[in-house]
Known about the structure:
Elements: H1 2-9, H2 13-65, E1 78-80, E2 83-85, H3 92-104, E3 113-121, E4 124-133, E5 142-151
Antiparallel strand pairs: 1-2, 3-4, 4-5
Amino acid sequence: MKKKSLMKSQKGSALLEAMVAILVFSFGILGLLGLQAVSIKNSIDAKYRSDASYIANQIIAQMWVDRSNIDSYAHLQAGAVCAYTGTASTNANVTGWISQASSQLPGAASAKTQILVTTPVAGIRQVKVTVCWQGPQETTPHNFATTAQINQ
């Protein structure tokens, strides 16, 4: 008699255990999907940063080769980060470089790149290249800046 009443009171407990197991499994799957989404976003960010580094180093290499015209590479030497102002360079290497940057990085444009050319010591030019980009759903731009000293 007592055994029958115990069986009756446990009726449906297997279903309840199965539902809890499904719930725990679902949370695990959702967590994995979230981690996968963050991993993909970080991978894309790393690719864009790597591309920006490559693009910035390309123009610095071009400046090394064309040292006699290094002042003509100066591009938008004033303004805030990623909202530069000033005189745009008319050097063909710079305009081609900007179009390449615009095609490889999302949201990159001429006004979001800067080539700052200064002379800290006579005979040495310091060049700072900043490349900015902004993903389609991002609110703030990313930037990569690199500095090189070029002897004349």
